[in-house]
Write a structure and sequence with these properties.
Blueprint (H helix, E strand, L loop, with lengths): L8 H12 L4 E6 L5 E14 L2 E7 L5 E5 L3 E6 L18
Antiparallel strand pairs: 1-2, 1-5, 2-3, 3-4
């Protein structure tokens, strides 16, 4: 059994929009070992595996990475008017 907690549907939809519009994000997340990461990323896709949801992205070094959605703690759109800014609250729910 996984400890994954689904994120709010509105936040998921914002990630989908960032992918479709090729918008870069400043992303803050905690890795599985608890280490905090902050990077300017280019979101590529959203994937589900074994009941967990992931954001696939290119990091600032051009490496493809993925992060589990419930480990993202902040997100801000770069170079645009719309914001995904602030602490992202985790709310159980399906999209």
């Amino acid at each position: 059994m996984t400890d994954y907690t689904p994120i709010d549907c509105a936040i998921y939809a914002r990630y989908e929009l960032a992918i479709l519009q090729h918008r870069r994000l400043r992303l803050g997340w905690r890795s599985h070992d608890g280490m905090m990461h902050i990077d300017a990323v280019r979101p590529l896709d959203l994937k589900t595996s074994r009941g967990e949801e992931f954001l696939l992205f290119l990091d600032s070094s051009g490496n493809e990475r993925r992060v589990r959605l419930d480990r993202i703690v902040e997100s801000e759109e770069l170079g645009g008017n719309a914001r995904l800014r602030g602490r992202i609250r985790r709310h159980p729910g399906a999209h």
